[in-house]
Amino acid sequence: MNGSTVTVGTRGVDALAQAAGQLFTLPQVAMEVLELTNNPQVDTQALKACLERDPALTARILQVVNSSLFGLSRKVGDLGQALALLGTVPLKLLVLSFSLPDELFRNLGADFLAQYWKSSLCHAVAARCFHQRGWGQSGDEAFVAGLLRQLGQLVLAQMLGPPYLQLWHQCRDQGAELLVQERAYLGLDHVALSQRLLQQWKLPPALVQALAAPEADGPLDPTACSLRGAVWLGTLSARLLVHGQQEAWETLLAEARRLARLEAADVRRVLQQVQEGVDCVAEALQLEGIDSLEVEAVLAQAQRRLAQVAQDAAVQLAGGGESLLRLSLNTQQHLRESLNRALQGDPQPVLRETQEEEPRCANPPETEPSVRASADSSCPTEPLEGASDPRLRELVHRAAWECRARRMPLSVMLVSLSGLQQLQVPEHLPQYRVLQRLVLASCRRLDWWPKQLLPVRDSLVALVLQNCDRSQAVQLGYDLIHLLREVCSRTAGQLAQRLHVHVGIASVEMLPPNFEPGRLLESCQRCLNAAAATGMDHLKSIECY
User: Fold this and answer.
1) Does domain 368-543 have CATH number 2.70.20.10?
2) Which CATH class is domain 1-12+102-364?
3) Residue from 542, 540, 519, 520 nearest 528 by CA
4) What is the pLDDT of residues 486-540, one digit of tens each?
5) What distance in Å separates the CA atoms of residue 378 and residue 380, rounded to the nearest whole number?
6) Could you say which DSSP state residue 533 is in?
7) Would you give the DSSP letter of residue 114?
8) In terms of DSSP bridges, do strands 538-543 and 500-508 run parallel, antiparallel, or are they unpaired?
């Protein structure tokens, strides 16, 4: 693969969706509800009788109707009354939300699921608000389409396993557009996969078509056009508010004007509605760990960015000219192998065998990274401890004092080559000694940044980076992973498969007077532990305040 674009094509997407459709099926009650609600003349009694066959689903629907999302003055205890209040499309949404196969959510990790739900809810609420304000139509169908647009991410994570999660995390940490990277490294993207899967679940064609970008697949009828336009504006909103892509603000303003004739003030009002809407829906769907959107802060930052850059005559769509991420050769190879296995109809999701089960949504580990032992024998069960080294603590304290005085950002990076201890046997001792020296030499090669470097253990190196913010440190970390992967491949040959590069980074943008530098080290160690728990080349980072 080596960074070149891969072509899988429509047949490959269809084959992957077909395999996913066999693994991830909706319950029979959900399928019957969808079929009944797709009929223009909905048989309410048949719908009620169908739902009553699933008491748990009925109870959850009643709980949502009685939540703050509807704001009723008195509680509703009768399913028939609840159906009358809900309407067809909101009912379809709830049934889909509560009936998505549990297998889609297993073993994905709290940070992945928290980000997935937050982004999906933002997509959905923004699409509904834009459909109402821009086209003067009900936003229910747009909400459903927005909520399901990213479903393919869950499928790819389950079927491709850790290599896909590596790609996903790297996109998140570097602010790269996931769709662009998926098309380059996989030859397909998660939105196309979502569309195929929803077709198999027999959702309405207009809803399935709405998931694509506005210009995709040629002209559509006015209803489908408005739905697709609203979902696209919801996508841009999520890029801005959830993924921190500040350039999406300019694109969102231009697209809202082009598609819905909305001005900047209208877009601002919609985004302010989104913040409240995401909180309400998260509560109604009983999703925990979804922190509130900071809309005003994000918009202020995006506005400042607009004021600093030259205005182009024509606004480019977000991600149009984005460059490829630098995935390690090892990750690229694993991605290709996982995709080939999935296309050949491997009967089991990969993550069932490699990670333990976690709840669908929990507190994201950016504040408390979870430490989970990997099934990969090359990953140590207890990652090397570096934060307690007195020499390193002294280095960080001195650097923090200087950065505070000069009002500069500070980052600390811990770099570990796990599996190196396994080479401490007579037949592999030459490779062990060479790699031991090359780890430190590779870290020294990052000489384009002012730093202090400390070898903490044989396979653990600490870097203290002054005047280096989180995004810059993350880029340096990925450069180092790429370099060390090549070093391992050249030096250890087939033994390189047992070795994995883990990087933990903690940064602080501006050190306040009462900041305790030890917090930076402890946060960095937790990030290293979380990266090591994946059992593959991985980087975790966190911003300290």
Assistant:
1) no
2) mainly alpha
3) 540
4) 777 776 666 666 778 888 999 988 887 777 878 888 889 888 888 887 777 788 8
5) 6
6) H
7) H
8) parallel
